[in-house]
Amino acid sequence: MTGLESLYREHLGYVLQSLRRLGAPAHRVEDLAHDVFVTVHRRLADFDTSRPVRPWLFGIAHGLVANERALASTKRAETRSPSEQVDDAPGPEEHSERAAAQRLIRRALQELDDEKRAIFIMHELDQVPVSEAAAVLGLLTDTAWSRLKAARKQFKDAMTRRLGSMEGGLHARTRP
Fold this sequence. Notes:
By secondary structure, the protein is mostly helical. 71% of the residues lie in helices and 0% in strands.
């Protein structure tokens, strides 16, 4: 098995999850994952193997999603807002609390702008140190910390709003 095949088998799930977290349109996630590994194939010889691979993969995914958004806005192919690009297709997962929590988090993440979402996901969800995330995203460490602080506040506010509206909806249904 080649290095690329090994990376693909080991990290495809992570790449797919990262693309979803970054707000890639659901119908494009698999194609973008393929593009991530095409990029990996082109850059594999230049990769510093002393560094962790996931932040590198995330950086590639982040760039591809940003390019996808720029292209979509230029072509005006999609007129929906980022919060409407969440995959709400019903399926077996709809019946589990975990799936509901994941959708809630994904929607809250969609409220963050791209720069804040990237640092938030890398540090808070993927446990990448801020200094390393900053390097992957091409930021100064202080800028990364500033964006992370703002992202944490926005995420907390979004979750509070969403959880409050869910609770209000439940109470409204139980009143006579």
